[in-house]
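ugh ok fine here u go
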Amino acid sequence: MATTALVAKAQEALDGELERFVGEHPDRSVAVRVLNDPPLRAEVAADVVRPAASFLKLLPALALYDAAERGEMDLDAMVARRELGSTMYPSILAAFQDERRLTLREVCAFSLMTSDNPAAQSSA
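structure:
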């Protein structure tokens, strides 16, 4: 089978799997793009605005801890609750008064332990 036919078959399989995953679930969206060969791209309801997915919060957390290991970031640096912003979604940060100071380590932990967009956005 020619390379073009293989890519088309892979694209068809990817599209089918994503359609099955999203299906009739209005709360699901997905977008996939292969950055190297073969050049595949698929989206289902990708234009729907959604809160940040929890697995995406791992990358800023890893970057934060890597920077701390290199001495470029202090995980014990303090940030005021009011500096973390707000969201239309429920947030664990609402339990703290605006003047409450949290360490970057705590903000990072909150973002990983809960679906807490302000905490995740602040640690990014």
